[in-house]
């Protein structure tokens, strides 16, 4: 089997990587069976983004800080501070 | 100041209180345990079992039909909708002149281990006026038994349907569980999903969406309004009444980003202005200071 990717999405409370995790998703390219993972009442895998780094996750993307859309400065929509991490497994 | 629709005939105790209405504005839902009697719950389950889990053959009203005309007797759905308590809840939020949008019987089979993707119903909505979605659980739902999952406080975020499917878990997310006959009412924008059912029984849930036809202003029981309405000048960094509804509007959900939390307070205050008809209402002075500056030069940038 070739190298496979595990992906972790952490949504943080601010643009700082050491901010608290407020939401999270996991996709396991090395796993089997249905996705997303079947966990009844999961808790956050890490308290902050830095905690994920210290556990061996590699940061591969961070949300850009885009200025608000004129006329919609106070609208809220999708989670703003998305950090995507990976681990590679053989 | 406080007056309800003069035609209201039911006991005020069936209406939402101001505290409950403020929770709906702040968090996007209100929940009522065991308000539907057992005989109606059992009749509904029997009907759903006859018409099947796909809900494709059950006779339904036409979209736009007046609430007062749909599901005439004999109908367990009609009996539920015409309960005094349910009428009071509906009236408080969208008025009894609301019309039927659509409904659906939702099933989570025992042993279905997959969660539905998180989503918001219909399409992205931009109005302050709002529909409600009433969820009826006609039997006990145990924790992990397929109760609808939702993200409190997500209702004012402008997203489009299943574009939020990537999000799996939130700090503070909730799953319904409770006794037979419970009802949960969501603001149209609530992020939600059918959850895995690890129980031994099939989970039934009936959902109906209702559209208001007249302004959703001060339809609830206003007996406690003056005591909790607070003052326009209430400011978390100044002086404020901790009993006022603004306490709910400035309370962040555990998943709110730090900066977004203040915008959530503003959006909650805007919705409170709509349902109270008080366009001077404010929480923490955000709307007031902006409006006063805009008045200086017509809002020029």
List keywords for this structure.
heterodimer, A: mainly beta, four-stranded antiparallel sheet, 7% helix, elongated, B: 301 residues, Jelly Rolls, five-stranded antiparallel sheet, three-stranded antiparallel sheet, 8 helices, 27% helix, 14% strand, disordered N terminus
Give a short overview:
The complex is a heterodimer of chains A (90) and B (301). With 90 residues, chain A is mainly beta. Chain A has one helix at 49-54, and strands at residues 4-12, 21-28, 58-62, 82-89.
Question: What does this molecule look like?
Answer:
The complex is a heterodimer of chains A (90) and B (301). Chain A is mainly beta. Chain A has one domain. Chain A contains 1 helix and 4 strands, in the order E-E-H-E-E. Chain A starts with a strand and ends with a strand. The mean pLDDT of chain A is 92. Chain B folds into 2 domains: 12-211, q2cbj1_9rhob like domain (Jelly Rolls, Sandwich); 229-297, no CATH class. The relative contact order of chain B is 0.19. Classes of the chains: A mainly beta (90), B alpha+beta (301). The A-B interface holds A 9, 11-14, 19, 21-26, 34, 36-38, 40-42, 44, 74-81 and B 113-115, 144, 156-159, 163-164, 166-171, 175, 196, 198, 254-260, 263-264, 266-267. Strand 2 (21-28) of chain A pairs antiparallel with strand 5 of chain B.
